[in-house]
Design brief:
alpha+beta, plasmid, BppB
């Protein structure tokens, strides 16, 4: 299944991924693009437990070490924070942190400049108002 078909609303996903897995799913979106891999719901759930065991994520899907998750799939990278106005270089990709109007907390979407590549909540098609607050810029090494 193409990763862009996997949404947080899918009841087959582990509950913590349904609630908090947007960054985790964005990382797997880029793995699917860069490594030409497809993930099933089972694969995503298994990856959750794998990376929880490795100490790369917390049980609530908080990502502790995104580069080690990518490294597991053979993608060597470094990551840094940038402001919302930064546009990545040729050897970089980005995950944008967004604030949804009238919702506490943050959500993460895979972006390129101002284009949404993958959003596990489908905010735009659902008419949700949001704004980019910062970006995680991954540089391929």
């Amino acid at each position: 299944m193409p990763i862009n078909k996997i949404k947080q609303s899918n009841k087959a996903l582990h509950l913590e991924i349904q609630r908090w897995g947007c960054y985790f799913l964005c990382l797997h979106y880029y793995v699917s693009v860069l490594k030409k891999l497809e993930f099933t719901i089972y694969d995503i759930n298994a990856a959750y437990y794998r990376f929880l065991g490795f100490g790369h994520i917390k049980s609530n899907c908080f990502i502790l070490n995104p580069c080690m998750i990518l490294n597991y799939y053979g993608i060597k990278s470094s990551v840094r924070y940038e402001s919302f106005g930064y546009f990545g270089a040729v050897n970089e990709f980005e995950i944008s942190e967004v604030k949804i109007k009238s919702v506490d907390g943050s959500h993460f979407i895979a972006t390129k400049e101002q284009e949404i590549l993958y959003d596990s909540l489908d905010l735009k098609p659902r008419g949700k108002v949001f704004r980019v607050t910062s970006k995680r810029i991954f540089k391929l090494i």
